[in-house]
Amino acid sequence: MSEMQNPYLMFLGDVPDQLGAKTAQGIVDWRPEWCVGQLRLDGCVADLGIKDLSIDEAISAGAKTLIIGIVNSGGFLPAHWTAKIVEALDKGMDVASGLHIRLGDLPEIREAADRNNASLFDVRHPTHDIATGKGEPRNGKRLLAVGTDCSVGKMYTALAIEKEMRSRGWKADFRATGQTGIFIAGTGISIDAVVADFISGAVEELSPDNESDHWDIIEGQGSLFHPSYAGVSLGLIHGAQADALVLCHEPTRTHMRGIPHHPLPGLQECIDLNLKNAQLTNKNARFVGVCVNTSGLEKSEIQSYLAKLEAELNLPCTDPYSHGTKAIVDNI
After folding, report:
1. Does residue 7 have a cis peptide bond before it, meaning omega lies within 30 degrees of 0?
2. Residue 221 and residue 224: Cα distance in Å, rounded?
3. What domains can you pick out in the chain, each with its CATH number?
4. How does pLDDT run across 98-138, given as a tens digit for each residue?
5. What is the mean pLDDT of residues 186-194?
6. Cα separation of 303 and 280, whole Å?
7. Which residues pair with residue 144 across a beta bridge?
8. Which of 44, 112, 175, 261 has the greatest number of CB atoms lying within 10 Å of its CB?
9. pTM for this structure?
């Protein structure tokens, strides 16, 4: 298969909230130079803060690939989006998706790609066989981001830590385990599309033996406390064999995302359970910090909130995107 070409036109469809466009938002935040604009249908609530462009306008601006930049429960493609995707293919663009459904499984899209000799990229689906995890010690260092819930900033945390380490001249690589991270890194394995028995093996493959002073910064997924996604989180923890863990949290949540009857865990409770599971494959695993998505807090309360957490947890606490991760890397 050919390589995915940028620049991108970010397709948001008509998602009902900003979080539904988190794939597109992540690409815009970390690879803004690749994104020429966004394409939204009537009723779309999300906004990436970039130009609204038609397909023709985007092509004129140099766009090569239409990115379906949304997430939804079940990973399906709404039927009324198909016409725009086919239009992009008929006008010479490739199309990429991080959804569970494969673009080529949809007849209209597959036929449009075939008649235009266009490429379809399904970054969520592994393209090779993966071994089961072995839990054997390996050289190099690894850090894993874990969370109190899903969609709390584990990818942003991992990218920010990689950026801080590299700014100091450290050897560090971000290891993508989700579709957005793969779009950003250009490589990775989408862990939630891996058959359960092979999840830990996939993470071992992503972060193999390396130089003793090299850090693999592994993007986390889900939460051990989320009934829907705990299995993915546990496989990641065991496969990472992390030397260092960072807890990620969004403080305005009143319940687990998508499950109103299920409250969020306490932060110390979350640290304790993640550490217990991490020590199954690395008995020396330890937490080195807490990353908080403070975007929902009033600016006047952010510093006091972070200071309060630091005192309670005895760990450096920061917003990795707006405040950086210097204190956490110092602690490492």
Report:
1. yes
2. 9
3. 8-122 (3.40.50.720), 141-331 (3.40.50.300)
4. 888 899 999 999 999 999 999 999 988 877 889 999 999 99
5. 88
6. 35
7. 218, 245
8. 175
9. 0.86
